[in-house]
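Response to reviewer comment R2.3. The reviewers asked that we include at least one raw input/output pair. We reproduce the pair for DUF1801 domain-containing protein here without editing.
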Amino acid sequence: MDKPKRTIIDVDTFILSLPDDIQSITMVLRETILAASPALVEEYKWSMPNYSYKGLVCYLQTAKKHVNLGFHKGNELVEKDINNLLQGSGKTMRHIRITKMDDIQSETFISLIQTAITLNEGEFND
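Raw output as returned:
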């Protein structure tokens, strides 16, 4: 039995439209996000890939020279960010800026994504 497809065409199209270096980073980040949990749902909202589970979890925001792995409840992840990767000073959102493939820390990113999922489950405890 085939596994259900977890990616959507809108995000495929978006990624294919990116410059090669940003496209490569975005593809690896997408794979990393989806590896964090089989429950995550990929969506295309606000002109960027978003991932949700019982609410918004994270997103990929691209720019000319970097990709942000953003967290909708990033302010609640700061204490769990042992590598101090999260940036931003907004009320709730935080992001990790990735400028090159070497910046990708898959295990660390997966841990933060899983913590963000737990926040949406309402089971986050210190």
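The mean pLDDT is 92. The chain has one domain: 9-121. Further pairs are available on request from the corresponding author.
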